[in-house]
Amino acid sequence: MRYMLSSIVFVLSQLTVGCELFVIGNAAKPRFIVERSQRTAAGVVHLFKAELDSNNTVAATELMVSATGRPLLAVEKYELADDLNRWKAVMNTLPITDTQVDTIDADNHSVTVTLDYFRKINFNTTRSESTWWITKVVDPQRK
């Protein structure tokens, strides 16, 4: 009886511990939620895409500044209209499936978003007084 009880305990312990012995595939990496706001570099990129998706190119240009960090002039915003329409056509209705942020320095980050697991778009962002702005959009497949 004692031998049978100890063997049952042993088998039960092996069943509970042995569940993790065979893992198929990799564990899914945790997804972080990006808030669409100008509080983070990734957030301003997601906000920019949301504005383009809602066909609000005027608001999308308001999220951009020059490479030096100064606000864009009206003529510069006008010159961006063709680029915004092209970016809108590329990004429209495609979900952002991955966001990677590379720190260039404390106030400049490079954000790479993957659209629909396939297309990558690079954004250069800069921080000015705790608000993040987009300075450059690069589509590597368009070079």
Overall description:
- This protein is α+β, with helices and mostly antiparallel strands.
- It has one domain: Nuclear Transport Factor 2, Chain: A, CATH 3.10.450.
- It has helices at 2-17, 41-53, 57-62, 74-79, 81-91, and strands spanning 96-105, 108-115, 119-128, 131-138.
- The chain has a four-stranded antiparallel beta sheet, covered by helices on one side.
- A hairpin with a 3-residue loop joins strand 2 (108-115) and strand 3 (119-128).
- The longest helix has 16 residues, at 2-17.
- It is elongated, with a radius of gyration of 24 Å.
- The protein starts with a helix and ends in a 5-residue tail after the last strand.
- The mean pLDDT is 86.
Please, how many helices?
5
CATH class: Alpha Beta
Helix content: 25-40%
Class based on secondary structure composition and strand pairing: alpha+beta
Low-confidence stretches: none
Biggest β-sheet strands, sense, barrel: 4 strands, antiparallel
Give the CA-CA distance, first to last residue.
77 Å
Radius of gyration: 24 Å
Principal-axes geometry comes out as elongated
Q: Strand order of the main beta sheet, please?
A: 1-2-3-4
- Summarize the helix and strand pattern as letters: HHHHHEEEE
In terms of topology, how is this protein built?
Elements: H1 2-17, H2 41-53, H3 57-62, H4 74-79, H5 81-91, E1 96-105, E2 108-115, E3 119-128, E4 131-138
Antiparallel strand pairs: 1-2, 2-3, 3-4
